[in-house]
Amino acid sequence: MEHSVTRHTVGGSVEPGGTGLPALGGAAGVQAPKARARGRRPSPTARRQRRAAFLFLAPACVMVAVYVIWPILSTIRLSFFNWDGMTEPTFAGLANYVELFNAQTFYTALKNNLIWLLLFLLAPPMGLAVALYLNQAVAGIRIVKSLFFAPFVLSGVVVGLIFSWFYDPTFGLLAMILGHGVPVLGDPRYATFGIVFAALWPQTAYCMILYLTGLTSLNAEQIEAARMEGARGWSMLWHVILPQLRPTTFMAIVVTIIGALRSFDLISVMTGGGPFESSTVLAYYMYDQAIKYYRIGYSAAIAVVLFGIMLVYIVYHLRRMLRAEQ
């Protein structure tokens, strides 16, 4: 007795030689579940989680928009106007920028900002050295840490007054050490360097705090393995500790660069941009034009240039760090 063997095709027709079951092969049978998965709506739980995330982020986004994005856009817009802060602003186009790039004081301030930037980059390695010294479990180290931490909690005005007395050529400590008075803040050749030296004191303390925090999160197993391999001193620091401190170093450098470019308080207290505008920087030049001469639009143009310099430098370092991490 013979049995007829049938085979179903994809369309549902029966052909000889099959098993009696409809075949699911072919592109349509494979892609149908995927199409249904793509068209499926998120579950109620996923929608609630997404809504909760937006609600948690909303206050921070609103604050960034109001206190960061809007002032930046307003400053850029204001830089194209002439405005004294009281009368109606008048459109000036690129006149503020043309005048800025033709002003000798702008290039003096830019040169001083570059000096600040180069010398201020001494703060991260100095802070690292102090942090390595303080990262010890010895008696009395907490008191020493407090002494090194003290400059960070002092305001810029206090630091400026302390170093103004230190540099005073008649009764200052520097005059006593050298045996004669040196008008550091009264000489155009030394004024900027004297202010930067004063600013390095609290900035080094800040970098020290960052590195002390980073040293507490080091991988002890890597350090122990390096010791077993014979790593000591400089080789341990360079090949084991510093690679783990890369995020801390990046943060210290970025904060130091921003501090160098927005330096204002010490200059205002110690020299007022003098003598003969020799110690002025872009931030103080911006303040001087807005407050003393009521040139709000011109001051906004200086702020835009300063913001552009900071943005380029920070984006450059961010890209370098991301490439290194990848």
From TrEMBL:
Pfam family, one: BPD_transp_1
Protein localization: Cell membrane
Protein name as it appears in the record: Carbohydrate ABC transporter permease
Main subcellular location: membrane
Biased composition (Basic residues): 35-46
Transmembrane intervals: 52-73, 114-134, 146-167, 190-215, 236-261, 296-316
Highest rank taxon of the organism: Bacteria
